[in-house]
Amino acid sequence: MREVPEKKGLMEALFRKKVFHGNSHLDSPLKRCLTVIDVMFIAIGHMIGAGIYVLTGSVVRNQAGPSIVLSFLFSGIAALLSALSYAEFGARFPRAGSAYTYAYTSIGELWAFIIGWTVPLEYMIGNAAVARSWSSYFDTLFDHAIQNFTINTIGEFDVGGGFFSKYLDILACILVILVAVAVAMGTKTSARINLVFVTLNIAILAFVIVTNFTYADFNNWFGTTSTGGSKFFPYGFSGTLSGASTCFFAFIGFEALATAGEEAKNPHRTIPIATICSLAVTFLIYMLMGASLTLMMPYDEVNPNAAYAEAYRAKGANVARIIMTIGALTGLINNLITGTFALPRAVYAMADDGLIFSFLAKINKFTKIPLNAIMLFTILNAIMVLFFDLDALVEFLSIGTLSAYSIVSASVVIMRYQPAPIKSDNPNKLEMDDGGSLRNWVPFRSFWDNQPAGRSICVGLFFLIVGYFWLAFTFRLEFHNTIPGYISLFFNVILILVAFLFILGHRENRLELSYKVPLLPWIPCFGLLINVFMMIYLAPITWVRLFVWLAVGLVIYFTYGIRHSKEARKSRVVATTSF
C-alpha cells in the first residue's frame, strides 16, 4: 500500500480538529494515580505561592495600592468564569494539554498551536519569577548577604532597573534545578511533596493574616494622599484594573490542575470538583492577605520584592518576620513544584500530537513522565532565572494565560452549539440532534442553514470579541469622555448586543456530560469580556513579548508541525485507504 499526498487545502489543514473515538480520551501512557485531594492541592499550591509572595507587593506599590483587594476580586471573578469552562472541558477531555487540547477539539489545529505555544512560556516566566522571589526572601533572613557576596565576588551583571538583573542569581538557579529533580522522580512523589508544602503554607498564612490585622490602621485606606488623591485608589480606578490584569496570574493554578487531568484516577469527577474548591480557598486567602498588608502599612512604603517580611521588619516584629519568611519560602517552593510539574506536561501534549519536536513526547519507562521535556525546559528556566530581573518578569505575566482562558471560554460555546450524537433505534446509523441550528426568529436563517455546522456560531463569537476589544480600547485610552467617544460607544454596544443575540439564537445540543457550564452562553461570554479587558490593561511590553514568542512558534509550526501532525497523518491514512 502506498501513501498518497493529502488533498486537503492549507485552510483545512490549519483548522483540522483533534477527534477522540469512544473512550480514547482516557487512554494515556501517563500513570493515572491522582485523587481529588492530590489534584486540588496541585492547584492550590500553584496559586498561593507567587500570587501572594511575588505579585502582592509589586501590585500594591506600583499599580493599585489598597484597592488591590478589588483587583483580586475582579481577577478572581474572571478566573471563576474561566474555570467553569475549564471544568467542562476537563470532564470532556481529561488530557495533559489542557487549553491546547480543548482548542484542538473545538476550533482547530492552528489556534491550538498558538495557545499551546504561549502556555509553556507563561509557566517558564512564572517559575523564574517565583525562584527569584524565593531567593530574595531567603536573602532577607541574612540581611542580603548572599546578594552582596555575589556582587563582590563576580561583580554586577547589569546596572539594574532594566530587563536584566543587577546580579546573577545563582541561588535561584540552583533551586530551579533541585525542584526539577524532585518532580522528575514521578507523579505520585511530586503530589506527596506538594501536599506537605501546601498544608504547612496554609497554616503559616493563617498565622500571618491574624498577626497582620493586629497592626491594622484604617487611616491607610481612608482619606487623601499628599497629592490630593484617594488613599484607597492612589493610582485611580484604572490602576485597580491594571492590578487585576497582573493579579490574574495568581489564579492560573487551575491551568496546572487541568494539565493533571491525564493522570487523575477519575477525571470526569475529579477535575470539576478540584477546580471549584481550589479557587474558593485561594480567593479567600488572597483577599485577606491583600487587605491585611495594606492596612498594616501605607502602600508607598511596601517593599515590592519581599512585602510581608519587610513590613514585619518595619514594625519590629522579628519573630513574626522569621515565621513569615519561612512561610514565603515554603509557599514559593510549593508554587515552583507545581509549575515545574505542569510545564513539561503542556509541552508533552503538543509533542505527542506531532506539532513540536517528537523527542519531547518521550515517556520515561520507570517514572512514566516526559523526562526530556523536563530536562530541556529546566535548562531554559535556569538560564532565565539567572539573568532576568524580577520586576521585568512580573510585567510579562498573564498575557498568555488570559489568551488561553479566552479561547477556552469561546470553545465551550462552540462545542455546546454543535450537533451531537443521539440514541438511535438503528445501531448502524449515527443520528445527530439539532445542536447549533438557528431558531425561527433569527434573520437570514436559511442562509446559515446552508453553511457548514458551527460556522454561524464562530461568526457570532468573532463579532462579539471584536466588540469587546473595541470597548476595552475605548476605556483604556480614555476616549469615552469625548463626543466621538460617545458615538463610538453607541455603535460598539449595538455590535455587542447584536452579536450576543445572534449567539442566543442558536439551539444547544443535548449531549450528556458529567459537568456543564451553567447559564450558557452568559457565563462564558461574560468571562470573555473580563479577560479581554484585563488583556488590554496589561503593559504594552507584555504584548511585544507575546508577538515575538508567537512569531518564533509559527516558524516552528509551518516548518515542522503542520507536516508532522498526527491528525495530518490520520488524513493521509484515510486517503491511502480510499485510494
UniProtKB/TrEMBL annotation:
Keywords: Membrane, Transmembrane, Transmembrane helix. Gene3D superfamilies: Amino acid/polyamine transporter I. One of its GO terms (molecular function) is amino acid transmembrane transporter activity. The keyword Transmembrane applies. Coiled coil: none annotated. GO terms for cellular component: plasma membrane. The chain crosses the membrane at residues 33-56, 68-87, 99-119, 167-186, 193-215, 235-258, 270-289, 322-348, 369-390, 396-415, 453-473, 485-505, 517-537, 543-562. Residues 515-565 form the Cationic amino acid transporter C-terminal domain. The keyword Transmembrane helix applies. It is a multi-pass membrane protein. It comes from the Eukaryota. It is found in: Membrane. Pfam families: AA_permease_2 (PF13520), AA_permease_C (PF13906). InterPro entries: AA/rel_permease1, CAT_C. This is Cationic amino acid transporter C-terminal domain-containing protein. It comes from Diploscapter pachys.
